[in-house]
Amino acid sequence: TDQARPEGAAPAPVLILVERAYGPAAGGAPDFREADPSAAQLLVTDFVATRGDGVFETLGAFDGTLANVGPHLDRLTRSAAMIDLAGPDHDVLRAALEAAVAAHPPVPELTVRLSLTRGVEGSGVPSCWIHARVADDYAPARAGLSVVSLDRGLPTTAPASSPWLLAGAKTLSYAVNMAVLREAQRRGAEEVLFVSSEGYALEGPTSTLLVRLGDRWVTTPVDAGVLPGTSVASAFALLRAEGAECGEELLTIEQVREADAAWLLSSGRLAAPIRQLDGVDLPVDAALTARLGDAIAGRA
Ligand code: PLP
Predict the structure, then answer these.
(1) What residue spans define the domains of the chain?
(2) Where does this protein have coiled-coil stretches (predicted)?
(3) Which position among 77, 125, 170, 196 has the lowest Cβ density within 10 Å, counted as fewest Cβ atoms?
(4) Dihedral over alpha carbons 36, 37, 41, 42 (to 10 degrees)
(5) pLDDT, tens digit, for every residue of 165-222?
(6) How far is the CA of 221 from the centre of ligand 1 (A)?
C-alpha cells in the first residue's frame, strides 16, 4: 500500500533505460531515456531472466532528494566486480537517477531501484535500468518488528573460502532472501535475522543489523559475508558525531537477544527497531529510531 493514498491514486512509476552505462554516448545518442514502465522492455534471453545474473541497488529519495548516491554507486561497482562485470559510469548513472526522481510527481518517499545485468545472452552488453516508485508504507516496521533468527547455512569464513557464493554481493538472485521472509511469516514473525552456521548474528535479508550495547554501537563485520550497508554508515556518522563508540564486531544471537536495543537498517525502510527477537522482547526507543532514520534519509 502506498503512503496514505486512496486505492488507485498512486502516481505511476518512472522507468529510465540506461543505454550508456559504460561511458559517454557515441554520436550524440542520449545516455538514458524514459520508457513506458507498464510496457515490456526486457528480452527473455537477458541473463537476469535466465540466470538471475546481475546486481542492483535500492536507494531512497526523501522529499525529492536521493540519499547516499555515492555510496550506493560505489557498492554497485563492488557487487559488479564480484560477478566479474566492469564497473559502470558513475556520472551517467547519477544523472539517470536524478532524472528518474525529477520525472516522478513529488512524494515524501520514493523507492529507486537501479539494476545492472549481464545483458542478453551472446551480446556481451550489460542491461541497465532505473525504476522509481512510491515507497511502501513503512510506518508499522518503523514502530517495531517481530524478528526470528534463521540459519543462513554458511560460516563467517565463507567469503574467504568460497567467494563464488557471492556472500556480501547485492545480486539479482534474491529468491533466497524472499523465501526466508515467507518462512518468518510461517513462524509468526515479520522479519528475519540471518545467523551464520557458527551462531553469529549476520544481517536481515534486505537490511543491516545495528546493536546497542550500553554506549557502544556494533554492526556485523563485512568480511563475515554481509552486504556493506550504506544506512549503517550514515547511522555511525551520526552516532560518532555525538561521541559514541561504533564498530564492527561479531555477536552471537544470544548477545543480540540480550542487547540494550537493536535495529534493522536499510535505505528505503530506514531504521526499524527489533521489538522482539525469537520471542524475547527488546526495548524500543522511538525518538532514537526517528533520529537514526533521519540520518539515513539525509534529513539530519
Ligand atoms: N543487507 C542486505 C542483504 C541488503 O539487501 C540490504 C539492502 O537491501 C542491506 C543489507 C542494507 O543496505 P543499505 O543500508 O545500503 O540499504
Answers:
(1) 14-134, 139-297
(2) none
(3) 125
(4) 170
(5) 999 999 999 999 999 999 999 999 999 999 999 999 999 999 999 999 999 999 999 9
(6) 14
State if residue 208 touches ligand 1 by the CB under 6 angstroms criterion: yes
CATH of domain 139-297: 3.20.10.10
* Closest residue by CA, ligand 1 atom 9: 207
- Which three cell numbers, joined as nine digits, stand for 246? 561504533
Atom of ligand 1 nearest to the CA of 267: 16
Ligand 1 center to residue 92 CA distance, Å? 23
ipTM: 0.99
User: How far does the centroid of ligand 1 lie from the alpha carbon of residue 206, in Å?
Assistant: 5
CA 208 to centroid of ligand 1, rounded, Å = 6
Give the tens place of pLDDT for each residue, 140-160: 999 999 999 999 999 999 999
Test site for ligand 1: of 165, 208, 296, most ligand atoms within 8 A of the Cβ:
208
Domain 14-134, CATH 3.90.220.20 — does that match?
no
CA 19 to centroid of ligand 1, rounded, Å: 26
